Amino acid sequence: MSLILFNDLTRKKEAFVPIQEGQVRFYSCGPTVYDYFHIGNARPFIVFDVLRRWLEHEGYKVTFVQNFTDIDDKMIHRAHKENITVKELAERFIAEYNKDADALGIRRPDVAPRATEHIPEIIKTIEKIIANGHAYVSEGDVYFDIKSWPRYGSLCKQNLEDLEEGARIEPGEKKKDPLDFALWKAEKPGEPSWESPWGKGRPGWHIECSAMSSKYLGENIDIHSGGVDLMFPHHENEAAQSEAASNSGKPFVNYWLHNGFLLIDNEKMSKSLGNFLTARAAIEKFPPLALRFFMLSAHYRSPVNFTPEGLEQAAAGVARLRNCRSDLNFAAQTRKNNNSEFDLQKFLSELDELDKKFSASMNDDFNTAAAMGILFDVVHLINTTLKENEKLPEGFFQASKDALESYDKILGVIGPEESASDNSEVSEIESLIAERTAARKSKNFARSDEIRNILKARGIILEDTPQGTKWKKELV
Ligand SMILES: [Zn+2]
Q: Separation of 238 CA from ligand 1 center, angstroms?
């Protein structure tokens, strides 16, 4: 079964056919780096990271571009407030973005272009739009001419009349129509500016994505993603600009994907409601793996409701996955026996069935919620097998380990193994456990209890089994 995606351009599920066989040109709108990114923005970063991984898993060569908006009103305002330059502000919050994104297991894009490093490309794009008759210059500003673009509104599915109703010309704007939007803004005192054919100024927000996506991915790209709040006006404007600049008749984007809103306790997140949560604050409160698990346990297009209970459930889910892997590792050391009567072929074919279901879920409009359900079916199968069979062959352990590893490569919700993360810590823990076992043998229960408490304080939980002492780390 091949990949089917819900395309917001047609509002239908469609088979995914790439422009070039075996390749995917993928653009996702990145953060405006004036502050830490909030938990609502963490959602597209996480879900589209998983879509990228899935496309790679399916054998596509993916070029994933995600920009940094490092110049706009919010950037200028914040830099003034902090008494630093816009560039210094951008450097600081690009580093903070990378820190939080890394913690959440979001892979870095292949290209992460910054608007201010692409001023010549932006100017060139604007020049093309003017030359093609779809933009005009007005006292140093350049505006997109909506009336010259009959397709305007085709992505958000609204006609011009309805859109005009909500639009206004703000003081200081020198445009003809309230819906016209700025491609270039004339310099204002105290703001960063660049030379241009229309005088000194700076780019509008929307044009940077058009200029940078065409530079790195070409005029016609496969997938463009972002939050549903970006559909209008940002993506509508991007499409109008890019298609007006290329004038090729080809669509800017073949598949538009938008993730649903994230609510906090059933309310829209806003600074005025006081429920604004940055990803940084969330990471300090909840394990990053649980945050990732939470985002993937809903379909990307559905709204999700962020609650402490939901996050606790997600943390319990992550713990269950990690426990399955550590139980498996422990059993591999103590219960491996190739002469066991275990029916390996049956197990492998059950695993294979589940794998087919996993693929079918991911290929059905990238349904991570269903795919996560299948991952738990795999865990259930492994746990039951471990429980019901005293001795198990090498093939069982290898196949189980491979399955967990390959799902985690796509979803990233199990995380690294303790032993891989810190070998010296592991050997220290194991030597304490060995000392405790010796203490128990010599009936020195005081020392045995003491060691258990030392380990407990470090988040290590011990379980004494007939095969020896098992340990696991509490999720932090
Ligand atoms: Zn964008």
A: 7
